[in-house]
Structure to design on (378 residues):
DNA sequence: ATTACTTTTAGTACCAAGTCATAAATGATG
DNA sequence: CATCATTTATGACTTGGTACTAAAAGTAAT
């Protein structure tokens, strides 16, 4: 039996979201209605036509490529920042961060967040990590939110700046690291 | 003056690669030739029409999403592995690894390669990094190939296994790290 | 059952951005 | 000037639509 209008529209929306590369004609066959009905549905649901859908997916991809380079620069989201003093960032552990077998976050993601933050907190065009001592205090699981706190400490004898980063999940410490940073004015290159 | 055919086709190819969302009409205006000429050019160069180009970019995006989750587990490519003894991995530094402004690799990528290798070299279902001392010895640039070498050392008093990882570009050391690893049999969970 | 209203289908004209094929105009070169 | 490559023009057809109008079918209420 053919479904009701509301039900059909619900499924239509899902179907298009799941497989955006589908024509009205194919949809009409699937739902056993005329092309016109599909088009009426799309209008009511404000779903754009095939070509526009494809285009928007493609544009997204185009932006991703640009964005991947930009966003990659900062791991986690900086929520508080006082240049050359302190900074805080949060990162939610998702599927992409954990070991595929167990759901424990891979160390380098925790590290990346901390390292990024150490770079971001410094008021320099480009700061580089020269050395660091780190410690993973406890495992972080998928779904947990890691809050990393960076504090800028003294300069070392060699002109490096020390940034201390501690990461927490619900106020429980999961990571600690001391980052010795080169700053752009004393580049090693 | 209008360019020669060969020159125009060379530029056309470039242009389309760079901005695939461009119509023949727009191209015709840019190169000051008729639409038909552009179409002849596309045929000779085997460049598909706008809609096909958009579609292929969109499909690429669709695959990327799946891929991103799988590849993430191993950073770099393991080329030699003797379990519980030593391992070697290589990683080519690409655009996705460097700071957008300068072309210097971000520390956490170098770290990720080393950390991954430290995990991989241990003959355990799941090894976790507990602690590590690392040092970035010199900057790594885009295009360089980083070879990471891991050696399994002694157990510590606390049952941790120490893995020493040193990374090189053309036999010049760029990174060194000592990783203290938990092994699955003495899980901390 | 008749009326009223919603939902669906049909049909036409039109559009963008092409393909395919044929023919004519233009340019360069021996 | 003849000849060949290159460019332009023209028309018919294609896909996957939009926009609009009109008719048919289904559903509910009086």
């Amino acid at each position: 039996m053919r479904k009701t209008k509301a039900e059909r529209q619900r499924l239509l929306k899902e179907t298009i979201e799941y497989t955006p590369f589908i024509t009205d004609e194919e949809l009409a066959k699937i739902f056993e209605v005329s092309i016109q009905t599909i088009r009426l549905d799309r209008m009511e649901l404000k779903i754009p036509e095939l070509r526009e859908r494809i285009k928007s997916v493609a544009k997204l991809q185009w932006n991703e490529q640009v964005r991947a380079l930009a966003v990659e620069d900062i791991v986690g989201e900086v929520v508080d920042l006082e240049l050359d003093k302190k900074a805080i960032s949060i990162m939610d552990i998702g599927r992409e961060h954990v070991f595929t077998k167990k759901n424990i976050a891979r160390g380098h993601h925790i590290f990346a967040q901390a390292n990024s933050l150490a770079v971001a907190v410094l008021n320099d065009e480009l700061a580089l990590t020269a050395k660091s001592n780190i410690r993973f205090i406890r495992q972080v699981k998928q779904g947990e939110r890691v809050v990393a706190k960076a504090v800028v400490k003294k300069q070392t004898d060699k002109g490096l700046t020390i940034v201390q980063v501690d990461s927490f999940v619900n106020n429980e410490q999961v990571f600690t690291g001391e980052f010795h940073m080169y700053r752009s004015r004393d580049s090693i290159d």
Summary: Residues 5-71 of chain A form a domain with the Arc Repressor Mutant, subunit A fold (CATH 1.10.10.10). Chain A touches chain B through 48 residues (CB under 8 Å). Confidence is low (pLDDT under 50) at residues 63-72, 185-189 of chain A. The two ends of chain A are 73 Å apart (CA to CA).
